[in-house]
Specification:
Elements (H helix, E strand, L loop, with lengths): L12 H15 L8 H18 L3 H7 L6 H37 L1
Helix pairs in contact: 1-4, 2-4
Length: 107
């Protein structure tokens, strides 16, 4: 199988989504710290802790994240991000609803 090349549909949105992820993670108490680098390091640490609990650490070290199956990554992400992802979606819906309401008022 060839190397995966995951590219965002809108590269400009990556930064905004990362900021949202770190903001929500802080609110949920998943990470503590002020800088984005600290937040990223804490999330990565938690990701590896979960992988270890699920018995996937050795495979990650052997083949690397890009060569892990979707199912394996989903197991890790599900443990770490279930609540985080749900809260991010909820926040994005709130932003969209607020934007739609503003657009309606302008008409």
């Amino acid at each position: 199988m060839g190397r995966r090349r995951n590219r965002p549909v809108n590269p400009d949105a990556v930064r905004a989504l990362d900021n949202l992820k770190y903001e929500v993670a802080q609110e949920l108490g998943y990470v503590r710290g002020g800088s984005e680098d600290e937040l990223r390091a804490n999330l990565d640490r938690m990701k590896y802790e979960i992988a270890d609990e699920l018995g996937l650490s050795e495979k990650i070290r052997a083949v690397g994240w890009p060569n892990m199956t979707s199912r394996e990554c989903g197991r890790i992400g599900g443990q770490l991000g279930g609540r985080l992802g749900g809260q991010m979606v909820k926040r994005m819906i709130e932003y969209a609803e607020a934007r739609m309401a503003q657009d309606q008022l302008r008409r």
